[in-house]
Amino acid sequence: MSKLQEIRAQLEARLESLLADVPPRQRPLLFIGLGLLVPLLVWLLLLAPLSSSRDTLQREIATREQELAWMREAAQEVRRYAITADDGGRAAGSPLAAIDSSAREYGLGRAMQRVEPGDGGEVRVWLEDAVFDDLLRWLDRLSGRHGIEVVEVVVEPARGGQAARVNARLTLIRDVEAS
Fold it and tell me: Does the pLDDT of residue 80 top 90, yes or no?
């Protein structure tokens, strides 16, 4: 006798011992009841929770897709505002940061020797050996984009006699009404 036949014989013997107390006329009714109970238990214990989880996940996905669509619209709006700010809107932030970053942008980073905050929101800037045209463009940019105006300026020719090079001392202040 093979191993499989032994296991089958053991299962049949166990089933006969369980059914020994059940009258032979009620055995078909018992098997029909078990046939209905097993699929019901499979549904209640496995399939119903899986179906419920799937429905919950589908609702969550729909919610996330709506949020993503809103975020994409918001991102486009932010880009539009950023482009508008670059085209002439005033950028917010620290005047010192605006002065430093814009000076580097206009090639005045090396010429800037000292930047010092003063009283009442003023900022004093010392430039040496700066190209005069770059200085003027930089000051225009500070005024137009950052709302930083020149309060006082002292400009003198740079040492060394190079044309269009100057030393400058500036006092700048952010125009409260413009920013």
Answer: no
First to last CA, the chain: 96
118 vs 46, 64, 94, 123, 167, CA distance in Å?
73, 50, 14, 5, 20
Nearest-angstrom CA–CA distance, 112 and 71: 41
Beta carbons within 8 Å of 107's beta carbon, 6+ residues apart = 131, 134
Kindly report, residue by residue over 20-66, the tens digit of the pLDDT.
888 888 888 888 998 999 999 999 999 999 999 999 999 999 999 99
Please tell me the distance from the alpha carbon of residue 112 to that of residue 136, in angstroms, as a whole number.
14
Could you give the CA distance from residue 151 to residue 122 in angstroms, rounded to a whole number? 9
Region of 158 on the Ramachandran plot (φ > 0 left; ψ -120 to 50 alpha; else beta) = beta
